Amino acid sequence: MSSSPPPSATNRHVLVFPYPAQGHMLPLLDLTNHLASHGGFTITILVTPKILPLLHPLLQTHPSIQTLVLPFPSHPKLPVGAEHVSHIGNHGNFPIMTALRQLHDPIVEWFSSHPSPPVAIISDFFLGWTQCLADHLQIPRVAFYSVSSLLVHVMNSCWVHIKTDCFRSSPVIEFTEIPKSPSFKKEQLPSLVKQYQDSDPDWNLLRDDVLANTCSWACVVDTFENLDLEYLDHLRKLWGEGRVFGVGPLHLIGAAKDGRNPIRESSSEILTWLDKCPDDSVVYVCFGSQKQLSRQQVEALASGLEKSGARFVWVVKTIHETDGRSNGIPVGFEDRVSNRGILVKGWVSQVAILNHRAVGGFLSHCGWNSVLESIASGVMVLGWPMEADQFINARLLVEDWGVAVRICEGANSVPESEELGKVIAESLSRDSSEKMKAKALKREAVGAVRPNGSSWKDMQAFIYKLIQLPQN
Ligand SMILES: O=c1ccn([C@@H]2O[C@H](COP(=O)(O)OP(=O)(O)O[C@H]3O[C@H](CO)[C@@H](O)[C@H](O)[C@H]3O)[C@@H](O)[C@H]2O)c(=O)[nH]1
């Protein structure tokens, strides 16, 4: 175990505990960045050793932030060395969540030996067991949600009813207790819900963990009122006034006055390439931080992009190898499209790319961060939901907000490349209602984080609530 020197006696000391997946971590680090910039807090972030480098931009911006680095607890279902969901993919959530629960005792030990321990814990909703930890330590806990308010309702409802015969046997689940009574096919429900095994005690602990979030002292959601009002208000009704804060899009709140976000921004040759492209002429293709496509999916995408004739930036994560060939990109593809497309193998600064005037469409898996980032950039989405909350997000994007079209659906589906090429070409070439609505929604997102905007007010209220906590 390693940690930094004791915090200042005048500040409120807060422990931030992110869940090790970029889609969860980045917005919580944006929130942490904001708290650190605000002042009045001493902040300790808890991570395991392989996660520490991911904090680098934040720690560089705020050297006062301290770290608590605890060894990653082993788990039989995890390969040695895996500490982050991207190391194994979405199916790694269950063993990672289960393994991290073992940090309960080391954290208690750290608290008891600390001269001025934290007065609150802010932790990801995938770490629901920290509610028990906070109860044990007799301090408040804030549940942080990097998902839509609708998803919070759907998830809680699924976990409440998951053991009932009706839930088990119905192919379609109707959520009558949620505003507008949405219904979803079983296969569209969050991955953890679909993977649940009643006979496994660890799954039942995980269920209890997720539901424990509802007992948290406060709940912070990365969303904003004009996007999610009905569901956010319903959360307020259930949790009680003064406990639910819609503070998103957090990547905008984390940005400095010049619009740059120190946690997300990085210089990139892609931006230089985009500088040479006309406005709204490029489709950006990226499926989040952890999804690895199959060879067939990569081939279909490559073919679709080629047939579209469109300019593109395509971020390819490592491809799952099933047949021993070295990669899934068709031979000669990169040469054939070199005058109009960039293929990036690795990590890009997505927020910077989406904000570039040349980007006119986002082919996305509809992860919640990608959803918020596309909205905040005013870019329409070509949606291909695959897993987790993505089907629910796609429904919001297409049906509720009208800023997206669906191009495919399912983790193992392979789009038809002719059709894909056509949709990409069309979406870039004409002024669609989706594009106009996306631009309008961007104004709402930007307005929400401006002084007196809904997220700005909720953030003020949240900070005030934290600062009021008694010091040790
Ligand atoms: O090359 C990349 C790839 C991703 N990102 C960023 O990484 C985040 C990715 O988050 P998201 O779009 O939500 O996708 P996932 O990484 O797949 O996120 C997981 O976590 C999210 C939050 O719970 C869920 O909504 C998703 O469905 C789930 O897959 C975003 O901020 C992106 O800007 C980059 O900056 N560069």
TrEMBL record:
CDD domains: GT1_Gtf-like
Entry coiled-coil feature ranges: none
Keywords noted in UniProt: Glycosyltransferase, Transferase
GO function terms (MF aspect): UDP-glucosyltransferase activity
Pfam families: UDPGT
Protein family per UniProt: Belongs to the UDP-glycosyltransferase family.
Name of this chain's protein: UDP-glycosyltransferase 89A2-like
Native source organism of the sequence: Cucumis melo (Muskmelon)
